[in-house]
Design a protein that fits this description.
Elements (H helix, E strand, L loop, with lengths): L16 H17 L1 H15 L4 H15 L7 H9 L5 H11 L6 H35 L30
Helix pairs in contact: 1-6, 2-3, 2-6, 3-5, 3-6
Length: 171
Amino acid sequence: PMGAGPRFAPSETKPDESGFNRANTLRDEFTPLSKDFRVVQDAYSKISTTSDTGAGDMSMLYSYVKLLDPGSVVRESEFATVAASGSYGERIQGMVQRIISGERLPPSLREEFKREAEGLYKAQKGGYDRLSNEYRRLAERYGLDPTEVIAEYAGPEGTGASEPPPGFRIE
């Protein structure tokens, strides 16, 4: 009779359940500890690719605030209202007011925000790298494959994006 659970062909071996459990425990610890980095990386990626338009300016400022406060829960649709209240400082408030009134950020200011965002991203990535190296070391000490513990969120240096999985192609 067919029971519940995975079935293995005679030549296959049953997975090591204790190894899986150890990897799962480490992964469960690592994932929330790396959450802020994932938010920062996403925000940095958006800043790096914003269009040179009014909407791009607003998106860049919103993403910049996410870099400064990865745990903030303000939605993009609420951002202008919150920023206008002064919650993010006078500079951001002033920029948001300019954009709402139809003005654009001067190119030099856009570049300044991008440079500052890059510095913030690199600082956060340094923390993520230290964290992932520690969990990689723990995985190896327990005889586990580190890729079963650590999801590599960091992309190539300076891109803020992850490499596509091997064999994945965009056409």
